Amino acid sequence: MRYRAGILALSLSAVPSFAMEFGADPVFPIHDYDRVELGWLLFYDPILSGNRNISCATCHHPNLNTADGVALSLGEGGIGLGPERKADPNNLPEQRIPRNAPALFNLGATQFDVMFHDGRLEADASRPGGMRTPLGEDMVSGFDSVLSAQAMFPVLSADEMAGHYSENEISQAVRLGQLSGPDGAWDLISKRVRDFPEYRERFAKTIGADKQIAFTDIANALASFIAVEWRADDSRFDQFLAGSAELSPKERRGLVIFYSERNCASCHSGRFQTDHGFHAIGLPQFGPGKAARFENHNNDVGRGRVTGEAADFHKFRTPSLRNVTLTAPYGHNGAIPSLEAMIRHHGDAASSFAAFDRQQVILPSFSAVNDWAELENPNSKPDILLANELDADPFTDQEVDDLIAFLETLTDVSWRSEGLGVPESVPSGLPIDR
């Protein structure tokens, strides 16, 4: 996918004249502050999880730059936060989360219309409700956006937030396929939220006092919070494009490498350095994978699982590179521990795959599973490398150094001082992950 002949004929003297290539500035819709603040409380409140022990923030925490700092998370059955999280000996997880927890930066921009590593939720104007999802078109009514609709997935996942069969009423409803109807999982979550006067009062301000709180209202509030709290589009690179900041010689060299000499922008394109598409880059596979449990294997074919097309096997969504220097480990399964290693992997995926060191993978302690079954599967490596789209053209040490310098300019941490942060308490009174 990388071509030496870039779309931009850049030189150090020509920058930043290429800013016109980005077109109009990104669009961030305005959100009602009452709804943002309501979403803030819900994001940190474990009341949305089946066993009342996990919140959205457990795997997307601001202290860990809106992710959790590990390759594959422990959801239900875990104790602690980030790399310190471990299995609860009194309630062991059934498995790890199959994919890396992505960062949440800029998801409120209208350009972000595809969610999850495999894109199983995406905007689609041709579909009723304007979205496509494997859960069915009748499930998207009432959600304001794909960012809002993505909230329906974690709360329905046994390994993420719902809990395992027979542990609670929500996990039982999920197991029985009772999701969106009366007394389904969403309805049960909504009833929990309605039990607290502060939530009822806050929702009355945003949806009206006469409307009963529905799960879609909860999801819409969560989306408003995420959209506003983690907007990160005022990096030095943005200021550079606007002509209000300069880049150092090293950063400029990295920019030229990125946009011209190596054309990383063939996939990491646009204002947020993503084409929102899907590509195969030859990452080693480990962990539980995404196969159905009855299939008894640990494979993860990525986009191919959504489309059913062999040409999409092992393809995953191109991540945005905003705040990329803060969000290691990298890849759909967090296989690559550092930004330097990820850049070098893009230069020679086969060699990187061959030299893969499982000891470098950051995994929460959980010894009840074989994390490496797929890595040790002799049939897995050829398929992954055959699908790989990257040219074998190793980066020099100087190129890596310059690229990292440029990628640093994509950092915007204004949310740390300007955002709402972690609340002191939530209406349910449950403990907050800190």
Q: What do you see in this structure?
A:
The chain has helices at residues 33-44, 146-149, 158-162, 169-175, 185-194, 197-207, 215-229, 236-241, 249-261, 303-307, 339-347, 349-354, 380-387, 397-408, 415-418, and strands at 78-79, 86-87, 114-115, 121-123, 131-132, 278-279, 316-317. It is mainly α. α11 crosses α14. It is globular. Mean pLDDT is 92; it is low at 1-9.
Q: Tell me about the biggest sheet?
A: 3 strands, antiparallel
Instruction: Report the C-alpha radius of gyration, rounded.
Output: 22 Å
Q: What is the CA-CA span between the terminal residues?
A: 41 Å
Helices, by number, come to 15
- Going across the biggest sheet, name each strand in turn: 3-4-5
- Summing up helix and strand content along with how strands pair, one would put the structural category as mainly alpha
- The fraction of residues in strands falls at under 5%
Number of strands: 7
Per the principal axes of the C-alpha atoms, what is the gross shape? globular
Order of helices and strands: HEEEEEHHHHHHHHEHEHHHHH
What do the pLDDT scores average to? 92
> Low-confidence parts, pLDDT < 50 over ≥5 residues?
1-9
| Helix percent band | 25-40%
